[in-house]
Amino acid sequence: MLMSLQELKEQAYQLSVSDRLALVSAVIESLQDIPPIENWQYLVARPHPWRKQLYIKGRKLLASIVWQDIITNQMSPEQAAENWDLPLSTIHEAIQYCESHQELLKLEADEERYQLEVKGVSFESTNAA
User: Fold this and answer.
1) Residue 45: inside a domain, yes or no?
2) Separation CA 62–CA 58 (nearest Å)
3) What is the Cα–Cα distance from 25 to 31, expressed in whole angstroms?
4) Which domain holds residue 89?
5) 39 falls within a domain
6) How far apart are CA 82 and CA 80, in angstroms?
7) Half-sphere exposure of 101 (CA within 13 A, CB side)
8) Which pLDDT band holds residue 31 (cuts at 50, 70, 90)?
9) Which residue in 13, 15, 88, 129 could disulfide with 81, CB within 3.0 to 4.6 Å?
């Protein structure tokens, strides 16, 4: 019997923090078992206890931050390049990376939210009724 994603999430919330981190690491690792055919020119990995997504080379800036900014603010790649003071080719590569690694980005966002909640940070819905 297959579990839904919601059922899996509920079971994961019952694990200890260290077990959750181990589970997230295992899932992320399994997503990265794809042969490394990617050769990013403007993106780089940085050491982190559980985060595996790539950063903009030369900056402490996650590619996903740039991508989310583009989506949220409905920017063109050219506007994003100007906004972030980055070459347009870097913006295009960040977009390509994020669009092709959405599962990893979602898992890491969920983990970051969980870790903040454990520290007592509360999140209120921003959805208008």
Assistant:
1) yes
2) 11
3) 10
4) 30-118
5) yes
6) 5
7) 26
8) low
9) 88
Cα-Cα-Cα-Cα torsion 26, 48, 31, 81, nearest 10 degrees, comes to 160
CA–CA distance, 60 with 7 (Å, rounded to integer): 35
pLDDT digits (tens, 9 = 90+) for 38-75: 789 999 999 988 899 999 999 999 999 999 999 999 99
Determine what percent of the chain falls in helix, strand and coil, rounding each to the nearest 5. 55, 5, 40
Longest dimension (CA), the chain: 50
Structurally, the chain folds into a number of domains equal to 1
Residues 6+ apart with CB under 8 A from 64: 53, 98, 105, 108
DSSP E strands in 1-96: the ranges are 43-44, 55-56
Q: Tell me the pTM.
A: 0.66
85 inside domain: yes
Q: Would you say residue 123 lies in a domain?
A: no
